[in-house]
Amino acid sequence: MIEVQSVSRRFDDLTAVEDVTLTVGQGEMVALVGTSGSGKTTLLRMINRLVEPTSGRILLNGVDTGTLKPHLLRRRIGYAIQGHGLFPHYTVAQNIAVVPELLRWPKDRIRERVDALLALFQMPPVEFRDRYPAALSGGQQQRVGVARALAAEPEVLLMDEPFGALDPVTRARAQADLRAVQARLGTTTVVVTHDMEEAIALGDRIAVLDRGRLVQYAAPAQILTAPANDFVGQLIGQSERPFRLLALSRVSDHLEPGAAPGTPIDAESSARDALAECLWSGRDALPVVRDGKPVGRVTMAALAAHAGGPG
User: Fold this and answer.
1) Regarding beta strands 156-160 and 77-81, do their DSSP bridges make them parallel or antiparallel, or are they unpaired?
2) Closest alpha carbon to 39 in 77, 8, 1
3) Within its chain, how far is the Cα of 300 from the centroid?
4) 6 close to 46: Cβ distance less than 8 angstroms
């Protein structure tokens, strides 16, 4: 869906992005990660031509974006930023409908799309469509911001530090919501983050940038187990690597027959969440449920053994 071919961007004497080549497949979610000044936001903004490449080219579904008028290109690309950027004097429905109205969609189609997106983000339309942003929590505002970016059914969704302003609990929930919605809609998505943990939680693949160069582009498990250089290793945090490995697997991957006492955990929860629950509750094993029905147990010993596995 997206092909970045030997792209560079220079600002006077500063090279922000240097000779980056990567592809993003149809329906894939890719995280761009790196420290401040690594070039990740500049690279993202070149995809929708908010920044023009100095050299190289970017293709969207096989078409060179440099041959398209910028405003027409951006109508095919959703864009969500940190802090959501909602219009305070527009209702939730009006905020989500901004781009479809610019495209002159029929009113009935706009209303159907707004209600469908609100329902998808678990915000009942009857309850939320006529609210103003000030009456929403930070997490709800961010959901509306993402819904607005998806409103015109874009081919691609770009997100720049979308959850950076949220508290850790709300942020984790927003990440899970995004992953579920993206999987359901199949929208090709590129997310910029400075947080490796967020990149691991969201990305099918992770592009690590350092001083404008792409130093590794791989699946999260490969980056965790085989970092390309010391810079990537430092981003991972060697002491945290075992817990991040657990975040990549589900409780169902470590299921054992048998029962265990106490509150159950869902089979689709992350293995990391299961280990945290064992530690907090002081239990050696947790009962596991799927669709509310017992399916076995997961033990702290099995989780700890996995955390000490590859790498």
Assistant:
1) parallel
2) 8
3) 29
4) no
Rounded-to-integer distance, Cα 210 and Cα 39, Å: 8
Q: What is the largest CA-CA distance in the chain?
A: 65
C-alpha span between 213 and 231 (Å, rounded): 12
Write out the two tokens for 305. 């053994």
**How far, in Å, CA of 148 to CA of 86, rounded?**
9
The tokens for 18 are 């240097």
Interhelix angle 138-150/107-120, nearest 10 degrees: 130
* 240 within 8 A of 272, measured Cβ to Cβ: no
Closest CA to 306 of 230, 221, 234, 180: 221
Give backbone dihedrals phi and psi of 153, rounded to 5 degrees, phi first.
55, 55
* pLDDT tens digits for range 139-178: 899 889 999 999 999 999 999 988 877 777 777 778 888 8
DSSP H/E element including 197: helix 196-202
Amino acid occupying residue 9: R
Name the token pair of 234.
């430092």
201 to each of 22, 176, 196, 270, how far by Cα in Å? 20, 8, 9, 10
**Structure token digits, residue 88:** 């305070």
The list of the chain residues with pLDDT below 70 reads 83-84, 238-241, 308-311
Q: What's the CA angle centered on 239, arms 234 and 242, to 5 degrees?
A: 110
Question: At a CB cut-off of 8 Å and minimum separation 6, what does 293 contact?
Answer: none
Q: How far is CA 44 from the centre of its chain?
A: 14
Give the whole-angstrom CA distance, residue 241 versus residue 31.
18
60 in Cβ contact with 155 (< 8 Å): yes
CA separation for the pair 151, 70 (Å, rounded): 19
